[in-house]
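FAQ: What does the model actually see?

It sees only this:
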Amino acid sequence: MKKFLKILGGFIVLVVVVLLLIGGYFGFVPGVSAVFGSDKPKDLGVKYSQEDYESAVEKTAIDFGYKPSTGTPNNSIKFEGKIDINKSLTSAELTALLANDEWEYNFLRDTQIKINDDGTEEISGVLILDRIPGFLIARGYPEDLVHAMRDSVKYVPTDPTFYIKLDAGWENDTLQMNLQKAEFGRWPVDESFLKEYNSVITAVVQRHVLSVPNLHIDSLQFENGQMQYIGSFPEKIIWAK
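And it is asked to produce this:
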C-alpha cells in the first residue's frame, strides 16, 4: 500500500525531480545555501495518527513487503500480479503512508499532502538529494538522465525543503495537470517558468506512472478532501530497505 501512495498519490512528487532536471534555471552553485534557509518544510496543517495509517492500509488489498538491501538500486523494487482498486484516501491517510515508507531510495522526508476542498493539491517536505539518482535507476531511467540529475544537485549544499501546489487528475490513463506554484527552500519558481514547462512535466509524470506493470487508471480525482482512485494496480510490491 505504501508504494501505491508512492507512485500514485505521490506522483505529484516526481514534479520536483523534473523541475530540478530542467534547470540550470535555478543557478545551483556553491554559496547559495542561504537561499534554502530553514530545513523545516512548510506546515500544511495535515496531522496524522496511527489510526490513519491503519485505515489506509485496510482500504486496499495490495500486498507489500521488504527484502534485504543489496547495496544497489537495480532490482530494489519488484511488482507482481494485478488487482482492481476503487478506493478513496484522505490527506491524513496519504501523509501517514508517506511517513511510513521505508524504501531505501525514498527521497522524501517530513512530507505532507493536503487535498483542498476546491480539488487542488499541496505537498511539502524535504528532498533527500543523494537518493534521487538511486530512485531513477531503480525505476529504469537511462544513464544519461541519472548523470544529469547528479550534475543538477551536486552543488546544492543541503537537502532542500520544497512546496508544490497544483490541480491534477487522471481519466483513461491520461493526466491533466496544472502547476500553480512551486518553491525550493525560500526560492519561489517563477510562474512563467511553470507555465512554459507544464506540458513537458505532465508528459514525463504520465509516462513514469504508466511504466508500472499492470497499472491502468480509469479515474484518479482529488475532491472533497480525498483522492479517489479507480483502476488496476500490481497486487504485490516488494522493495529493499
